[in-house]
Design brief:
The chain is an alpha+beta fold. It has helices at residues 3-25, 76-80, 110-121, 225-262, 269-274, 291-316, 327-338, 340-352, 359-369, 371-388, 396-423, 450-476, 485-512, 519-527, 529-543, 549-591, and strands at residues 41-48, 56-57, 98-108, 124-130, 133-138, 140-147, 152-159, 161-169, 172-180, 185-187, 194-206. The chain folds into 3 domains: 37-216, no CATH class; 224-256 and 446-591, no CATH class; 293-427, no CATH class. The strands form 3 sheets. The protein has a 4-stranded antiparallel beta sheet. Belongs to the nonaspanin (TM9SF) (TC 9.A.2) family. Keywords: Endosome, Golgi apparatus, Membrane, Signal, Transmembrane, Transmembrane helix. It comes from Gossypium hirsutum.
Length: 592
């Protein structure tokens, strides 16, 4: 072979390689395209604007659709999120402008017109995905026809033309919008058949925005000056609350605690009355009632704390971000299963500090303590969703996947954690010996009872996070992300710190009046913030435009599950911090 032939062969091979590399680099998997390439577009769902949970499959409305309609294979998280992606007739090839392209000719019967009119009356929107970017548009519009002395007349119109505005940078898509043309509409006020020609246009424009930041616009509302001011005000309010609580704890409790320690064993009855918490040193470490249930609370609370912290780690790593279809639900399901080993270990190890037998019952309670109520509430909500025909209704196959995941992953890991906790058990570290018979608790005024302490222990942390909680609820039951993950994580840490500080203070007050039953009360006082969170959920719903049984059920059902999780987490924080404090003061007493 001559040098010239070898050079030609080399050029041919290089050109083939470049062609293959170009085709590999241009695909939906890496979001890179060449001019004219097909870009996947899927229609997802429709629903009323004011009810985010009330969504239906796109073709529940008589839109133009392919024959047959092909459903996209969805992940577990996408199904749990209510996504039902299917193919569409729209063809939006990369960087190909289109003007008044015919989608289809369709004869709308009277029933079809009635469906579209009901959708327009309820402010129905549609959601689509283009290159994994979600975008929304409205089905139609309402106009006032005329005014009379008796009533106003309304006319309802269906958009028959949709314009897609797409922004691109190089060979990648950055942003997409869908706008119904208000000048190209069909009157659907009356239930009469009508012939409609549905059309669409596509306009491509360049942008300097980077591909890596294309998801930022979905959380742009959090970056607006007014929202940033509110976030910072909430943060500063929480920090001030912490500083005041620390100062209060230092001035009122630590100073008095030092005096109590100095007056130990004086033999003076009057001095002894001032330090009543020393009288109960033989009862303060007495094991609580319902020991198995208490250990299960500690185990599940620790598990949920681990789960939440893991979620924040995933957010910091960029794995979870707004509108990454189904990833949040998938992460929640998988992390709950994986962290069940934490629940089993914590429950069994804590139980074995009190007794070497019976830890199996505590682990069993930990397995159903949160999953049980969650399953019951989810089943009820699924029945409601099925009756509405909403996309929130889980298919039978998805339910079986969740059941099998719980049976073959969650339970084995829970048992494994329990066995490890039993094998590495240790004795309960008690600075003082426990008396055989409990000391009688003196009568206490009403403001020292559990409900009053729960009110104080829950109201102060709630007041520190209420502004951020408003944004969180707006994100959960809205279409915009109003809460920045970084600020949300900071507020979560602040909530834990405030709960711990208050629990220590309230426990000290309780012990000072010779009330030694502090174990369960520290859990209730620490978790009482969740009660205020649920009460605020009621207030949020009444102030919103949400309506209907489906939306009502989903808001209060899933908020109840979320607040219950916070009760377990914060209750665990309250007890753990109180236990550290009680051990410290009685160890200091013993050393003297």
């Amino acid at each position: 072979m001559s040098k010239m032939e070898a050079l030609k062969l080399s050029l041919i091979i290089i050109s083939l390689l470049l062609t293959n590399l170009r085709s590999i680099a241009s695909s939906p998997h890496n979001h890179g395209y060449n001019v004219g390439d097909h870009v996947p577009l899927f229609v997802n769902k429709v629903g009323p604007l004011n009810n985010p949970s009330e969504t239906y499959q796109y073709y529940e409305l008589p839109f133009c659709g392919p024959d047959p309609v092909v459903k996209k294979k969805e992940s577990l998280g996408e199904v749990l999120s209510g996504d039902r992606l299917t193919t569409a007739l729209y063809k939006l090839n990369f960087r190909e402008n289109k003007v008044a392209e015919t989608l289809c000719h369709k004869k709308l019967e009277g029933d079809d017109v009635a469906k579209f009119r009901d959708a327009v009356i309820n402010d129905f929107y549609f959601q689509m995905y283009y290159d994994d970017l979600p975008f929304w548009g409205f089905v139609g519009k309402i106009e006032e026809d005329s005014w009379t002395l008796e009533k106003k007349s309304l006319k309802y119109f269906l958009f028959k033309h949709v314009q897609f505005d797409v922004l691109y940078n190089g060979n990648q898509i950055i942003e997409v919008h869908a706008i119904g043309d208000p000048n190209q509409v069909v009157d659907i006020t009356e239930d009469v058949g009508v012939d409609v020609q549905f059309t669409y246009s596509v306009v491509w424009n360049t942008t300097s925005a980077a591909f890596d930041t294309r998801m930022d616009r979905y959380s742009r509302a959090s970056s607006l000056p007014i929202h940033l001011k509110i976030h910072w005000f909430s943060f500063i309010n929480s920090v001030i609350t912490i500083m005041l609580l620390i100062g209060l704890l230092t001035l009122l409790f630590m100073r008095r605690l030092r005096n109590d320690l100095r007056t130990f064993s004086t033999g003076d009855e009057e001095d002894d009355k001032e330090v009543g918490w020393k009288y109960i040193h033989g009862d303060v470490f007495r094991y609580p009632r319902n020991k198995s249930l208490f250990c299960a609370v500690m185990g599940v609370g620790t598990q949920l704390l681990t789960l939440v912290c893991s979620l924040f780690v995933l957010v910091c790593l960029g794995i979870l971000y707004p509108y990454n279809r189904g990833t949040l639900c998938t992460a929640l399901v998988i992390l709950y299963s994986l962290t069940s080993v934490v629940a089993g270990y914590t429950t069994a190890s804590f139980h074995c500090q009190f007794a070497e037998t019976g830890w199996e019952r505590s682990v069993l309670l930990a397995g159903i303590m949160y999953a049980g109520p969650l399953f019951v509430i989810s089943s009820i909500l699924n029945v409601v969703a099925v009756s509405y025909g909403a996309t929130a209704a889980l298919p039978f196959g998805t339910i079986m996947v969740i059941v099998l995941l719980y049976a073959f992953l969650t339970i084995p890991l829970l048992v494994l954690g329990g066995v490890i906790g039993y094998l590495f058990r240790s004795e309960f570290q008690s600075p003082c010996a426990t008396k055989r018979y409990p000391r009688e608790i003196p009568p206490l005024p009403w403001y020292r009872d559990t409900p009053c302490q729960m009110f104080l222990g829950g109201f102060l942390p709630f007041s520190a996070i209420v502004l951020e909680l408003q944004h969180l609820y707006a994100s959960l039951w809205g279409y915009r992300i109003f809460t920045l993950p970084s600020i949300l994580f900071i507020m979560f840490i602040i909530l834990i710190l405030i709960t711990a500080i208050l629990s220590v203070g309230l426990t000290y007050i309780q012990l000072s009046v010779e009330d030694h039953q502090w174990w369960w009360r520290s859990v209730f006082c620490g978790g009482s913030t969740a009660i205020f969170m649920f009460a605020y959920c009621i207030y949020f719903y009444t102030r919103s435009s949400m309506s209907g049984l489906l939306q009502f059920s989903f808001v209060f059902g899933y908020n109840a599950c979320m607040c219950y999780a916070f009760f377990l987490m914060l209750g665990t924080v309250g007890f753990r911090s109180s236990l550290m404090f009680v051990r410290y003061i009685y160890r200091a007493v013993k050393s003297e």
